[in-house]
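Re: calcium ion structure - here you go.
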Amino acid sequence: MELTWFKKGTIYQIYPRSFNDSNDDGIGDLRGIIQKLDYINSLHIDIIWLSPIFSSPNDDNGYDINDYCSIMPEFGTMDDFDELLEETHKRGMRLILDLVANHCSDEHKWFEEAKKSKDNPYRNYFHWKKPSINGGPPNNWKSFFGGSAWELDEVSGEYYLHLFTKKQPDLNWENSKVREEIYDAMRFWLDKGVDGFRMDVIPLISKPEGYPDAPEVGFRKIIENVYANGPTVHQYLKEMNEEVISKYDAFSLAEGVGINEDNVGLYVNNDRNELDMLYHFDILECTIVNGKFEEVSPFDLVQMKQIFKKWRDAIHETGWIANALGNHDFARMVSRFGDDKKYHKESAKMLMTMLSTQNGTLNIYQGDEIGMTNISLLNIEEVRDIQSLNFYKENKITHKYTEELALEMINKEGRDNARTPVQWNSDDINGGFSKKEPWLKANPNYKDINVKDQDEDPNSILNFYRSLLKIRKEHDVFVHGDFQEIEFNNPKLYIYKKNLGKEKIMVMLNFNNSEESFDASSINEVEILANNYENLDIESNKVVLKPYQGVILDLK
Ligand code: TEU
Ligand code: CA
């Protein structure tokens, strides 16, 4: 398997609104990112992914675009962007943008035109349907963010489809004009030198024929069986690849919502010429049973091992995936999978030890490199995320949960957890993100968790990330290789050996908050490549791992 730059590279996701504010208006911006490029480079990052930076009314923080070839004024100008791209490339890094092509904003010219009349030339850019016979929405589809996925347009008496908020109408990909518009926008950025795209909810672009009612199953199943993987999705992805991506030295990282281990190959196998890679939702949603703000299951390590294995096997030697433990849509990884209190430092390091040794492209999210944690928002006025706000509003009507519990759920699972401002230092107000009150409040724990302090501390999470990402560059076995699991059914330890040609490593991870030991008679002469404790306790035939200890051995 050939390791192209994007397979081997480490991706660092930036959520621009929360990254760094250069002009103290409380909102992160492009110049703020430029100021931090040396910092990003110091992490051994290869590829920066920017969440949407295009003009948008911000109903969903830029995931509702009203002009695909412009920069959101709050984030800066096109000149700022050109400088950001140039400065990124100067440092040997690449830059990818977020392509939100399943839907646009209802304030996009296309939709404003489409609403004017049934025979407007833009009408067919969207999905319109007559009311059902009883007068309600055309079918039972629910939006990802609560309520019906259909909104009535009073003028024409027809409904339009929006799988996300009603300000995010779905584009009709069956219309070749829509596809050309999107491809043109992609070319606009690629011609500037952009290195590819992260593709937002791309498995949703093709809708099932006849818009059939969804079965009464959990929301994740509805996504998988009804909203995603439509009949023409592969035709369009091939077309997009052939007409656009393949013409450039660029790649696609798809958000693999609704994709499972059985159909992933259709999207990413090398001979398909569709997508270069995707990240799936099985790990990200491993504690989310049906959908966010529904049932939550406790974290289960054996299940996580099974998921990693299942996906590794599904694409082995044929395709490629990326791995992430968090992004702007999920609670913070250390709070979900580690211990963000007593073993904060240990568990944050251990989790990255695991993630950086999985097969596939490594995808990390801003702030995780310093172990940023979930935030406790004190009341609903502090909540910003549209998904959480809609949940809270809907709950006020249904009274399914008490208001206290609803807020507790938002604090546990909500997307604002990942969107609090990056914590740059302890001295400045708002953790150095901005002098003005930020659009979403800074986590008060910036006093203890911040870039500046960790930069100066050789034992910090930040410097541990740096060393892991550096050795990953030097050893391809980190990126891919044959896996041999040890004690697979052990619910506390995750232990595996990997080899690729002459390279052999062993990874030992303790997910528990007390010491755990296992038989180590198979370990011979070794060199320690990474260890989040000072020592490794190997006695005769036994390895004893400290709470949340994570170790990588180079097996000679
Ligand atoms: O996310 C799609 C998606 O599936 C998420 O809505 C996810 O289900 C949810 O956040 C988890 O509970 C993408 C973007 O990453 C997200 O930020 C956007 O809001 C969404 O698409 C619409 O563009
Ligand atoms: Ca700003």
